[in-house]
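Name: FtsX-like permease family protein
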Amino acid sequence: MIRAALKSLLGRKLRLLMSTFAIVLGVAFVTGSLVFSDTLGRSFTALFASTVGDVVVRPVGGTTTQGSPSTQTLPAALVDELAEVPGAARADGNVTAVGVFVVDTDGKVVGGLGPPALGGNWNDAPAGHGLSGLVVQEGREPRREGEVVLDERTAERGGYDVGDTIPFVTSTDRLNLEAELVGVAEFAEGGSLNGATLAQFDTVTAQELFLEGRDVFNDAWVTAEDGVSQEELAARVREVLPEGVEAVTGDDAADESASDLLEAVSFLTTFLLIFAGISLVVGSFLIVNTFSILVAQRSRELALLRALGASTRQVTWSVQLEALVLGLVGSTVGLGLGVLLAQGIRAVTSSFGLDLTGQGLVFEPRTVLAAYAVGVLVTMAAAWLPARRTARIAPVQALRDDVALPEGSMRRRLWAGLALVVGGLAALAAGLFADVPRAGWWVGLGVLAVLLGVAAASPVVSRPFLSAARAAYARVFGAVGNLAGQNGLRNPRRTTATASALMIGLTLACTMAIVGDSAKATVDRSVAESFVGDYVVSSAFGGEFSPAIADRMAEVDGVASVLRERFAFGERDGDGQGVSATDPDTVDDLGLTLVEGTADPLRDGTVVVEESWAEDEGLTVGDTVTLDLPTGEARWEVVGLFEDNPIVFFPLLTTVDTLLDAGFADRDNYVVVDAEDGARGAGLQERLEEVVADSPVVTVKDEAGFAAEQREPIDQLVLMIFALLGLALVIAVLGIVNTLALSVIERTREVGLLRAIGLSRAQLRLMITLESVVIAVLGAVLGTVLGTFFGVALMRALRDEGLDVVSVPVGQLAAFLAVAVVVGVLAAVLPARRAARLDVLRAIATD
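Structure predicted for FtsX-like permease family protein:
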């Protein structure tokens, strides 16, 4: 039986090769995601191991929850004292700043998206365990004001060599500065900054630029003498530390930083694995279909084996053996393709700022195990149903000319499908509208159950559609159209199984189209209703910028007033919480609609709260909001509640001085400019843009530009999802091609007879194309209907999150249907060509 199974497999190499495409692509996505994830983890682990000392001494609250330095510092005298601790070889103070952007030779910012633009002071202290940190590999270290060292990758991307003058844009009061590039540094142990940029000045200059000229540091490294462990040195250092300062080992500091950062970007790996799962689900339909057709074509052969004495189990496992071989081959090819895919993902993320080109791909053993486990198990599970049906072939059927596989009850399929749909809808409703743990899992399982339920019931549900298609074809294309329609009705299982693969991809595409369009419509309405002022000034990268910009804009001719808005992040009950801030005398310019209390008495140490957030937290006027901030626990009195406002980005609004007192840096996030009467449109925007002409980090926008900026991240996310869903659609198209090709092989004698009684090659190609179009349109119609339902339901569930506009992009959905017709035509090209080239006499003689 093993020899018979393998011989049968090798005898149908082309057919099985086509069915491997789905598993190859699915395994490749899983492999690529895991390789990229491991590479990302190794890169950050290596990076942080090279950027900490043996012991790191830092002020408690020295960094915000976003990882930026706070205003909490260490006095230089403490660093000198740390150098005298027994077991310490040396101690070095570090100045660290974020928002120090290098401007390249074309006047554009180097990096900016994602990884930070870092600045600080140069020192040659070794990293933990004696590792070398950054070392100057060209030029020398900075020694005086006006000199700077860049990391190698930043210098290369900026187009600079040693001796060039580098322009910078900073988020400090000193908005623009220039320095001579005197050295280029790299990690001696290998690795990179993963897309971050680093500019290092001499210590005095760094303190002047980033610490207001005070002789203090953001943290300090203490290097251990030979034979002294990090734990021993940390314990001795703690004995001399004042209150509010802590010491941690370099290993703990590195692990902490790497873990926080990996957790922040973990969504990327999860995102990729979700789409790998979608690809495998879609691919499973293709594999089930392929094996169903192959088993049907071999039904007489299998019946003959039963007649010769093969047991039911032997026949079943012969099919499973073929699936095992197919899974192994597909997994092997998918494994190799996954490595290439990981390189592609690395290249794409580098274009968004996360540059891992300096880190080699990490290929862990678990990746190989996962690839083969996924590929083999999915393939064998998908082939199980066709294999099980082989057991129902009676040996006596081998004596017949035509052997038909037993078919299960359509009624059972219908009831099973309806049960899955009902269960899926219940899970979907629980995830969207009920307070259940891990709601995302409920939604995902609910969507999957509904899709599988519709796929199971579709042979019955879609019969009216297939009958209508046959009638329409007969009316338009005559006898050829009637034949094409009857072929679709002849085996509704096969037709709908092939269409279901396309249905899944289009369901998710339509859902995301509705979610994206609704989100953009919500943004447009919110901005139109609540936009205040005439212009908004913000960072092109969504970060902080220098407060000097608002000061300069206040002096521009035609400006009536400027309003600063700042963001900060603390913790509330262990979760991150954002806070907005503005000056008390400009709070009325935000256009707040107060529903309780008043914003007039907003003063330092108080807060006004967004109405729905206050309701969720059980707060009202007079209550106290507690947050953990860099300077410790803060308790702010609630003095008012306001309606949702697009300019106030977080549900808590306090004063600028409150944030400064809490340890946050003096930086603006948004500036709203109000024009004098008659000044708007009279060249004012051009004059405002002149203020930031030397600062490519900052942009000036009117209402339309601000709305477009808010829509841009939504467009990027939807576009990325569509690109990933394209993989599922490719598999679905391959499924149509595969089904048609195998159907042509299965119907070789029928095709020969049709040609013999006068059907031309052109008519034969038309017939197969019409069959393909029916499959594609059926999948598109089912996908569009389900996608519209899921999209509307999801938006209804998100009303309390502020997404209260439901917008269905009818034009986009119609385009999906039109593309489905094109897909059907293109998918039929190769199968139709093969059918048309069959020799008539050989086809008639085919057994």
